[in-house]
Amino acid sequence: MMWMQQPPALAIVSFHSGEGKTTLLEGIIRELTGKGYRVCAIKHSAHNEVQDASKDTWKYREAGAAASALLQSSGYLEVCSQGADLHTAINVVSCFNPDIVICEGFKDSGLPKIAIVEPSDLGPGSRLRGVVALVLKGDVAPVGGVDCLPFDPSVVAAFIESRFLESRRRATMIDRYGRRILGIRMSLTQRCNLNCVYCHHEGEGSPSGEMYTDEILRILRVARDLGMRRVKFTGGEPLLRKDLGGIIAYSYALGFEDVGVTTNGQLLRERALELYEAGLRRLNLSVPSVDPNVYRSITGGELRNVVDGLESARRLGIHVKINTVVMRGINDSSIGNIIEFARTRSSQLQLIELEDLHLDKGFFEKYHFDLTQTEETISRASDSVVERGEMNRRRVYLVKGLPIEIVRPVSNPSFCAGCTRIRITSDGKIKPCLMRDDLLFDLLGGIRSGLTDDQLKDLFMSAVSAREPFYR
Ligand code: SAM
């Protein structure tokens, strides 16, 4: 078990049963999750009526809690840990990276009526401390330093938000151009088992080594604390990293809502099951051509491996989006074949315009293919068009059931205006813009020289405030 930084924890306790603690807690969970917070809840049960108590933890989850746990007075914790105390219970639900943990207590538990715990207060075996509020239906006199609140979920939720959660809100990163940073794109390695002629290496020139697993996990935790919701792992070839499954599983445990991988698929057949079991449900697969000879001349690899990998992933229920960088004179005349390939494998297709980055001199001028015309043709052939709510409302065209997206970043100010992600290079630098080599923030250097989490967050903040659209 990995111990993490503790979120604030709050307890609601009454002296008698039937005073409405569960109902109140459900209401608070609804209010806070409605405002976008992740809430976890613990039932701290006086009796050992497991069935009744389990009903309550189920109610918490129905109200929107990301996770709930049942802790009995005997010290039995339903989330599979014996001899547990409140500290352990809070640690377990903290794996789901909540913004706050709320505990429903019992009269002899020793908990104050409503209490907040700061991370530093929690040593093993410690109890909740620092009484700040009292919420009871009956008339029970508040004890020292207690705020009295009415029995009203929205009032209590507002109190909790202003007292304990405001700083978490502020932590969400927004750059000077009003762009919220919602995701990270992290290169896990620059090693690759292919040698694609068009590869931009995610904008990395000459990386100085790779990050260790624990360094990657720490960066993910800090990023998640700063409000990031999505993470995409790229490279090099991310499937060359043996720890990829563990990294994916940890990302989900941290509460990332969307975890993706971009791969060339050469190793996918062997690793699909492991990635699926780690929680992966979608990936991007690079397929620059569906002709084996053309594929080999572009990448140096075998198309057969990609097709096998795609089939393995699909059979498991992993959603596959095919990425095709379109190049003049290489694959622009076979877009129709790629569309059919994607359709028969019930995937999704993304046609990407070639970007001029770390390419051999003259390569871009020779092979860049403007996708404007292609988008018009696909638009005319489409049965319907869906606008994504993000990525600057990028359009998804449905052509005979196949969703197709066209990615046109080159000289496109609206592409930059819709950018909500920040990059981490394989050697642990924050890279605010794919196109710029001069703007790097050395996160890994900071980790290795002993910076605290707060100092790493400051580094993220500096990187975000340095962000500016490449094309305006
Ligand atoms: N090895 C993995 C793969 O092939 O997908 C991940 C690394 S690759 C650099 C990540 C993505 O960048 C792929 O979707 C690829 O199509 C895209 N890409 C690479 N070079 C590009 C370029 N010059 N212009 C546009 N997209 C590019």
From TrEMBL:
EC number(s) reported in the record: 4.1.99.22
Cofactors that this protein relies on: [4Fe-4S] cluster
Domain annotation Radical SAM core: ranges: 176-394
PANTHER family: MOLYBDENUM COFACTOR BIOSYNTHESIS PROTEIN 1, MOLYBDOPTERIN COFACTOR SYNTHESIS PROTEIN A
GO molecular function: 4 iron, 4 sulfur cluster binding; cyclic pyranopterin monophosphate synthase activity; GTP 3',8'-cyclase activity; GTP binding; metal ion binding; S-adenosyl-L-methionine binding
Superkingdom of this protein's organism: Archaea
SMART domains associated with the record: Elp3
Chain segments annotated as coiled-coil in the UniProt record: none
Species assigned in the record: Methanosuratincola subterraneus
Binding site for S-adenosyl-L-methionine: 198, 236, 286
Chain residues that bind [4Fe-4S] cluster 1: 192, 196, 199
InterPro entries registered for this protein in UniProt: Aldolase_TIM, Elp3/MiaA/NifB-like_rSAM, MoaA-like, MoaA_arc, MoaA_NifB_PqqE_Fe-S-bd_CS, MoaA_twitch, MobB_dom, MoCo_biosynth_MoaA/MoaC
Cofactor, free-text remark: Binds 2 [4Fe-4S] clusters. Binds 1 [4Fe-4S] cluster coordinated with 3 cysteines and an exchangeable S-adenosyl-L-methionine and 1 [4Fe-4S] cluster coordinated with 3 cysteines and the GTP-derived substrate.
Protein's name in the database: Probable GTP 3',8-cyclase
Gene: moaA
Catalyses which reaction(s): GTP + AH2 + S-adenosyl-L-methionine = (8S)-3',8-cyclo-7,8-dihydroguanosine 5'-triphosphate + 5'-deoxyadenosine + L-methionine + A + H(+)
Uppermost EC category: lyase
Residues given in the record as [4Fe-4S] cluster 2 binding sites: 416, 419, 433
Pathway where this protein functions: Cofactor biosynthesis; molybdopterin biosynthesis
Binding annotation for GTP: 185, 232, 262, 321, 421-423
Function summary: Catalyzes the cyclization of GTP to (8S)-3',8-cyclo-7,8-dihydroguanosine 5'-triphosphate.
PROSITE patterns noted in UniProt: MOAA_NIFB_PQQE, RADICAL_SAM
Gene3D superfamilies, per database record: Aldolase class I, P-loop containing nucleotide triphosphate hydrolases
BP terms from Gene Ontology: Mo-molybdopterin cofactor biosynthetic process
Family named by the database record: Belongs to the radical SAM superfamily. MoaA family.
Keywords: 4Fe-4S, GTP-binding, Iron, Iron-sulfur, Lyase, Metal-binding, Molybdenum cofactor biosynthesis, Nucleotide-binding, S-adenosyl-L-methionine
SUPFAM superfamilies: P-loop containing nucleoside triphosphate hydrolases, Radical SAM enzymes
